[in-house]
Amino acid sequence: MRQSRSSGSRGSAAAVLAALLLLLPLVPRAGWTAEDPARLGPLASAVLLGEDQVWRGSYVDGRYRLENRASPSDIRYYYTDLGGRERGRRRAEVAVEVEAEEGGWAGLLYAFRPDPRFYYVYALTGDGKAVVMRRDEGGLGRLMTIDNEVTRGRRARLGIAERGGEIELLLDGQSVGGIGGRGMGEG
To answer: 115 vs 19, which has greater pLDDT?
Structure first.
């Protein structure tokens, strides 16, 4: 399990960076335990509990809550590498709620590579949309936007299902599209 934090200006992507961000990787669902009340599985021991200069993390009513209190351009994510387990056939879902009006987002991180920094994000935004973004050497860019009644509620269950060299995007259990390309099937 790893955690990462980055801050500072992101050029044109600065407007979409997180005031509230919780990114969960492809992890199998785990059962409830006192040590893992939000069913975070392998991430339960990695998430912030307490406060630092920017973030506050806590369990609230069986959910993990991560709040950015001080720096709208700061993002925080947690990830784990599940190795080759069922690579290309995994599925992960996370229930997210975004309370920030603008700039905040929360969702799933996929195909993370630390160096050079690369990943996809499937997230629900504070302005009521679901987005797919890619972080690569050029920065963070939006690939797709989904705007419907489900996303406008700013609370949804986001999912990613691997289909070999592609991923299917799920919104409250329903397929809303998919993407293929670099990193697909790698988790």
So the answer is: 115
Single out the residue of 154, 187, 177 nearest to residue 19, CA to CA. 154
The answer to whether the beta carbons of residues 7 and 77 sit under 8 Å apart is: no
Strand order in the sheet with 117-125: 23-24, 105-114, 117-125, 130-136, 139-146
Quote the pTM value: 0.75
75: number of Cβ within 10 Å: 22
The three-state secondary structure class of 133 is strand
Type of residue numbered 58: S
Q: Which of 83-87, 105-109, 155-159, 167-171 has the lowest mean pLDDT?
A: 83-87
The DSSP result for 19-70, as a single string, is SS--EE-S------BTTBTT--GGGTTTS--EE-SSEEEEEETTEEEEEE-S
